[in-house]
Amino acid sequence: MHCIAWSSEFPSSTELILWRVSCVAMIVIPGMVTMMLGFGLIGDASERYFGWLIILASIIVGLLILCAWLYIAGRIATLVIALTTLRSLPPAAFTNVDWTTFFPHI
């Protein structure tokens, strides 16, 4: 949903880059978490590789914690950027719309 504004105008190039990075993070991180949890469940079925499973589980837990913080930061960044871009709207945002030409009245 947030990627709809991918090619929109932003007040600065920094906000544009931050918006795009946040949108990509909000798409990629849930998929990564799902894959990591899936690999963790597959790994639990095997008893032969118990030593490797402990290492794999600690890596997965570390990545999940990191991903959670990145996801939260991405969400906060998109909210802040969405509200701060209201300070410099394009001139077309201030034109009056004649809604009666779009929706017929009875």
From TrEMBL:
Keywords, in A-Z order: Membrane, Transmembrane, Transmembrane helix
Species whose genome carries this gene: Serendipita vermifera MAFF 305830
Protein name, entry field: Uncharacterized protein
Highest rank taxon of the organism: Eukaryota
TM spans (from-to): 17-42, 49-72
